[in-house]
Amino acid sequence: MSQKITLIALIIAFVSCQKKETVEKDKIKIADWLIGNWENTSTEGILAENWQKLNDSTFSASSYFIKGKDTLHFENIVLAQKGETLTYFATVKGQNEDKAIDFPSTAESDKQLVFENAKHDYPQKITYTKGANNTLTAEISGKLNGKLSSEKFVMVKK
Q1: S-S: 54 plus which of 7, 13, 58, 110, CB 3.0-4.6 Å?
Q2: What's the helix, strand, coil split of the chain in %, to 5?
Q3: Quick one: which of 73, 78, 83 has its CA closest to 47?
């Protein structure tokens, strides 16, 4: 009888480990809609984000704003799943000694991703929303100089 109980316990442990590993890799799949090249062209310039899948737990992107021939903003982004946590890492050239700032996810769905870091100066919140007609809205928000601030950027998939 004890051999049967031991065998059942081992089978349950094995199945549990298999399921957890699958869940860990599956969580980032909810963000697959980010993959691709996104762009917003306006009179102010061109804003673009280019997302790619590096492996089954990591996406990367470059985000930049160009006005004329000048790159006014350049950022490297890594979206990584470690365990059951999805985290957005942003590295802005010339800021924070070129070190990444982490924004753990606070909400994930097949249409929206929300990342927050209350300790960051600005933004404290980054939201990506999948829209109709191959659109993506990126929003940064939080307190800036003691006042609530929010900026939205609507991009179209290219």
Answers
A1: 58
A2: 25, 55, 20
A3: 73
